[in-house]
């Protein structure tokens, strides 16, 4: 059985990453929350699967989408894994995937699992609906928009 307080602490670490690091760009907190030997098991194309790669990804998203933030809809903990379902929002104000800024409002869903040990994020697995995101940037209708 997992200690309830440890589960809540792990959820709080992941929530801080989503809300304060990704949503506000607090890079000092990023360094505190991510273990130096962090591994991203599902890295995005063009970035390394380590802590530096995630930092580059986060900074790129914040540069491409002003007011970038996520709304967490739910979190679940099993052992040391925190699974989060969230919807990201922002305004396309910088180049993303080679697409020049359009000023369009975007939203896309993501689900990820992060392992938290001793208050640090050590591993990540996740999927984001980037197809929907690119469709929105291009102004195309399609599934997942609405």
TrEMBL record:
<dbReference type="InterPro" id="IPR032710">
    <property type="entry name" value="NTF2-like_dom_sf"/>
</dbReference>
<protein>
    <recommendedName>
        <fullName>Ester cyclase</fullName>
    </recommendedName>
</protein>
<dbReference type="Pfam" id="PF07366">
    <property type="entry name" value="SnoaL"/>
</dbReference>
<dbReference type="InterPro" id="IPR009959">
    <property type="entry name" value="Cyclase_SnoaL-like"/>
</dbReference>
